[in-house]
């Protein structure tokens, strides 16, 4: 989604100081002094006829947050410490307890055969769970088509390390009984998200950790990510532009620069758990506001694609001290009809302004519509392969800041720990969350002064887990 245009680096927007005064922060500089008239004027779309329009871009809201990593230690952090900031003792103990409980429930049931190997179980301990996770992460680096091959003694494919750390039978048993919530106490009527009940404690804990361990920088992006899954599940999504195409969709809020996953919502259809405060709004607006809720009013700027962007959402965000820009579906509600029907030749544009919100329609290789609360219709010259092209500054900055989710997804696909063959959806979701937590650990490590690459980080993390 972020590759709709040719990407190019650009400088941050800044408000012109020429002729500025304390009144420059008003949405219009030419409004009447009557506040009622000013409010009415702010709801009227005013056409912008030239890219040389003298009106400066709307000023950004003051950024009042202090970006920082919130960990107990200062300086360059240890790799294992970064990872265990997410998978701490509480979460490891929860998984250990629920895995042992689920194993006991299965063995006592009548579903297992009398001499089934699944009954050859003894309780797992927290340290063993950690080692199990280490081997799962290592499998993403050392790729083999069949999981059993990791324990194979055939000289051509042997990797003795796995057998030295844990036997294949024990690994299979832990993976079989891996569990995260007690099925016996599940109540569909009172659970906040019944469809995700089997993985819900982990989702809540990691979402809390993701947002508490980092105060992000000003520029954020919201987009959807897709976890490959082709099993029988009521909320499977088909997104042809994604690499996986079929799977479980997750809405993610990421830091644009690093791809740090700050918060996420797993989509489960109409029953997806969103904030009740925004219940009357369109679903796309609910998602943005639910993800952004703790950051509203602090001067953040969120970049979105045309699934989320709308004049209504832009008005809501600006009322809460938050800027936004992104691509726009020209058929959205409140987009002026004149702009929808406007015919443009290649290189031409049309734009309208309403308060802090600017809507722009531009014909490049095809017609593209955009919305921004921090840009005007300024064009900039870009040089690529010896050719100079002229693009709106809004397009350039959209390309620069929209890639946060794509950046995270790209790095997660480099060393995937989710195996294609797996029937239990909640286990696949858990391994996906484990992968995301490992990625976030790497971002925190880099932000604290770490110098290792993502691959070296993961290798040393596995070694540290096994040594411990």
UniProtKB/TrEMBL annotation:
Domain of life, source organism: Eukaryota
InterPro entries: PGBD
Residue intervals of the PiggyBac transposable element-derived protein domain: 81-442
Region (Disordered): 1-28
Pfam family, one: DDE_Tnp_1_7
Compositionally biased spans, kind Acidic residues: 1-14
Name of this protein: PiggyBac transposable element-derived protein domain-containing protein
Organism (species): Ladona fulva (Scarce chaser dragonfly)
